[in-house]
Design brief:
transport, two-stranded antiparallel ribbon, mainly alpha, about 75% helix, globular, single chain, 2 strands, about 425 residues, membrane, UacT-like
Length: about 425
C-alpha cells in the first residue's frame, strides 16, 4: 500500500513536470491559427489524452514498437513554429496531413535511422533548433502585447502581466531547485492568470460551457490534406526530434543500467512514429521524449516503468475531462506571452547548447552554421524575396525552417562527409605524426 501511494505521488510529479509543455503548445498553436474557444478546448483536451497514449506506446515494449524505458512523451516544441506557419498558409487540415505523412516516414526509416544519424551531427541539429527558436520569438512578442489584432495591443496592463510572469519565472529558477524549478513555467502562468482575474481580464465562460466528459473524435478539424512543403517541413522536424530522442534513450539507458541496442532504437522510433500518426488522426500533435521527466527519474531514483504507466493513465483521465482543458484556454495572451519568451528563448538556448558540441576551430563548421541560420532567418523575415521563383523551387524557399535546415544538411555533406583532398592530407599527416611519436 505504501509503495502504491509512492508510485502515485511520483506519477503526479511526472504529470506536473510535463503538464506546462503539454498545455502551452496547443494554446500557442491554436491561438496563432485563429481557433475558436470550443476548438481550443478540444485541442488542449485531446493533446493531454494523446500524451498519455503516446507515453503508453513507448513504455510498452513489444516486437514492433516501444523502447521499454521510463519515458514520458509530450508534444515537441520544435514543431510549434512550423505548425503555425503551415496553418496560416495552407490551413489546419494541411497541418495534420503533414504530421500524418511525417509519422509514416518515421516508421519507414526507423530501422535504418541509427545508420543515418551521421548526416545529422550537432552542427546540423543545433542549427535547425536555433532557427526554429528564432522564428518563434515574434509570436511570443505579439502575445506579450496582448495578441496580434487585439484592441488593447501594447496596453500597460498587458505589458505588466507579461513582464510580471517572465520575472516570476526567472526568480523561481534563481532561488529554487528541483521540482519547483521544473514547474516554474506552470507556476508563472497560474500566478499571471490569477493576477489577470483580479484585473478583470479573465473570462470564465468557456469553463462553464465545457462538458465534464468527452472522447476525442478522429479528424475533428476535417479530412487531412497533403501538401509537399508542409510534409517536408514536418519531416525535418520529425528527424530533429528523433535525434533528440536518441539522446534521451541513451541517457535513460545509462540511468537504468540498460544497454541500448539498434533494435531498441528502432522500436523507440516506431513508437514515436505511431504517436505522430495517432496525433494526426485525432488532431493532436507530434510527440517526442520529454527530457524534463528524465531528470525526475534521476532525482527520484525510481526507475520502474510502473510509475510511467500510472502517469500515462493520469494523462488519459485528464484528457477525457474538457472542463479541465477549458481552464487552460482562459489564460490571457499577455500571460502566455511572458511564458513564451522564456520557453522560446530556451529553444534558442538549447540550439546554442547543441552547437556547443561542435568543433568551431573548423572553418567549415562555422560556415555551415552561418549560412543555415542566416538563410533560415532571412527567409522568415523577408519571404517575398523569392516571390518570382517557379512554384517547384518555392517549395524549398517558402519556409525559413526548411531553407535553413536543408542548407545545414547539404553543407554538412559537402564539408564533413564527402572526402576532400585537404582533409585527406590532414588525416595522413596526423597518422605520420602518431607513428613518429
Amino acid at each position: 500500500m505504501k509503495q502504491t501511494a509512492k508510485n502515485i505521488s511520483l506519477g503526479i510529479q511526472h504529470v506536473l513536470a510535463m503538464y506546462a509543455g503539454a498545455v502551452v503548445v496547443p494554446l500557442i498553436v491554436g491561438s496563432a491559427i485563429g481557433l475558436s474557444g470550443s476548438q481550443l478546448t478540444y485541442l488542449v483536451a485531446i493533446d493531454i489524452f494523446m500524451c498519455g497514449i503516446a507515453t503508453f506506446l513507448q513504455v510498452w515494449k513489444n516486437r514492433f514498437f516501444g523502447i521499454g524505458l521510463p519515458i514520458v512523451l509530450g508534444c515537441t516544441f520544435t514543431a510549434v513554429g512550423p505548425m503555425i506557419a503551415i496553418g496560416n498558409e495552407y490551413g489546419v487540415s494541411s497541418i495534420y496531413g503533414a504530421i500524418l505523412a511525417s509519422g509514416l516516414i518515421v516508421i519507414l526509416i526507423s530501422s535504418v535511422f541509427g545508420k543515418l544519424v551521421r548526416f545529422f551531427p550537432p552542427v546540423v541539429t543545433g542549427s535547425v533548433v536555433t532557427i526554429i527558436g528564432i522564428t518563434l520569438i515574434p509570436v511570443a512578442m505579439n502575445n506579450m502585447a496582448g495578441g496580434e489584432g487585439s484592441p488593447d495591443f501594447g496596453s500597460q496592463e498587458n505589458l505588466l502581466l507579461a513582464f510580471g510572469v517572465l520575472i516570476l519565472i526567472i526568480l523561481l529558477n534563481r532561488f529554487f531547485t528541483g521540482f519547483v524549478r521544473a514547474i516554474s513555467i506552470l507556476i508563472g502562468i497560474l500566478a499571471g492568470t490569477v493576477a489577470a482575474g483580479f484585473m478583470g481580464m479573465v473570462d470564465l465562460q468557456p469553463v462553464q460551457e465545457a462538458s465534464w466528459f468527452n472522447i476525442g473524435k478522429p479528424f475533428y478539424f476535417g479530412t487531412p490534406t497533403f501538401e509537399l512543403t508542409p510534409i517536408l517541413t514536418m519531416t525535418i522536424v520529425a528527424i530533429v526530434s528523433m535525434v533528440e530522442s536518441t539522446g534521451v534513450y541513451f541517457a535513460l539507458g545509462d540511468i537504468c543500467n540498460k544497454k541500448i541496442t539498434e533494435k531498441d532504437l528502432a522500436r523507440g522510433y516506431r513508437a514515436e512514429g505511431l504517436a505522430y500518426m495517432l496525433g494526426a488522426i485525432f488532431n493532436a500533435f507530434p510527440y517526442t521524449a520529454f527530457s524534463q521527466n528524465v531528470g525526475l527519474v534521476q532525482m527520484s531514483g525510481i526507475k520502474t516503468n510502473r510509475v510511467i504507466y500510472i502517469t500515462a493513465m493520469m494523462l488519459i483521465g485528464l484528457g477525457l475531462v474538457p472542463k479541465i482543458a477549458a481552464l487552460a484556454t482562459i489564460i490571457p495572451s499577455s500571460v502566455l506571452g511572458g511564458a513564451m519568451v522564456a520557453m522560446f528563448g530556451m529553444v534558442v538556448a538549447y540550439g546554442v547548447k547543441m552547437l556547443g558540441q561542435v568543433q568551431f576551430a573548423s572553418q567549415e563548421n562555422l560556415l555551415i552554421v552561418a549560412c543555415s541560420v542566416g538563410l533560415g532567418l532571412g527567409v522568415t523575415v523577408v519571404p517575398e524575396m523569392f516571390a518570382g521563383l517557379p512554384e517547384s523551387v518555392k517549395i524549398l524557399t517558402n519556409s525559413g525552417i526548411v531553407a535553413g535546415s536543408l542548407t545545414a544538411i547539404i553543407l554538412n555533406i559537402i564539408f564533413n562527409i564527402i572526402p576532400s583532398p585537404s582533409r585527406q592530407k590532414q588525416s595522413e599527416e596526423k597518422v605520420v605524426q602518431s607513428q613518429a611519436s
